[in-house]
């Protein structure tokens, strides 16, 4: 029996640039990048740490570190971790005619 459109899981491609931007924006409101990446428990934890313990800055520092990590790891590694359902297409070298 095929799945209906309502029960079929919806895969949403997560953009690396948006994740980087939201992680850096974590200086103001930490945890936004975790919600974007559909890691809701971590997003709530970052948000609570940012609101309840703002003087410590743990969530803000963690957000910046993750933003740098997303920036340095490259698109392929980001996709393998956060977009595993989207297979990368192989790149064919240019052929001489």
Task: Describe this protein's structure.
53% of the residues lie in helices and 0% in strands. The longest helix is centred in the C-terminal third of the chain and has 16 residues. The chain is globular.
Termini separation? 48 Å
- What is the number of beta strands? 0
Q: What is the strand content? A: under 5%
Counted by DSSP, the helix tally is 5
- Largest β sheet strand count, sense and barrel closure: none
Low-pLDDT residue intervals, each spanning 5 or more residues: none
Query: What is the 3D form?
Result: globular
Average pLDDT value? 83
Helices and strands, in order, run as HHHHH
- What class, by secondary structure content? mainly alpha
Q: Helix fraction? A: 40-55%
Please compute the radius of gyration using only Cα atoms: 17 Å
List the helices and strands and how they pair.
Layout lengths: L15 H9 L7 H5 L3 H13 L5 H16 L1 H8 L15
Helix pairs in contact: 1-4, 3-4
Characteristic terms for this protein:
about 100 residues, mainly alpha, about 0% strand, globular, TM2 domain-containing protein, transmembrane, membrane, transmembrane helix
């Amino acid at each position: 029996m095929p799945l209906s459109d309502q029960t079929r899981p919806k895969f949403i491609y997560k953009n690396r640039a948006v994740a980087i931007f939201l992680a850096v924006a974590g200086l103001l409101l930490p945890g936004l990048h975790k919600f974007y990446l559909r890691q809701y428990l971590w997003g709530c934890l970052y948000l609570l740490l940012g609101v309840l313990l703002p003087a410590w800055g743990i969530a803000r520092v963690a957000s910046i570190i993750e933003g740098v990590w997303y920036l340095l790891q490259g698109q392929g590694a980001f996709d393998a971790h956060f977009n595993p359902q989207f297979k990368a297409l192989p790149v064919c070298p240019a052929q001489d005619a």
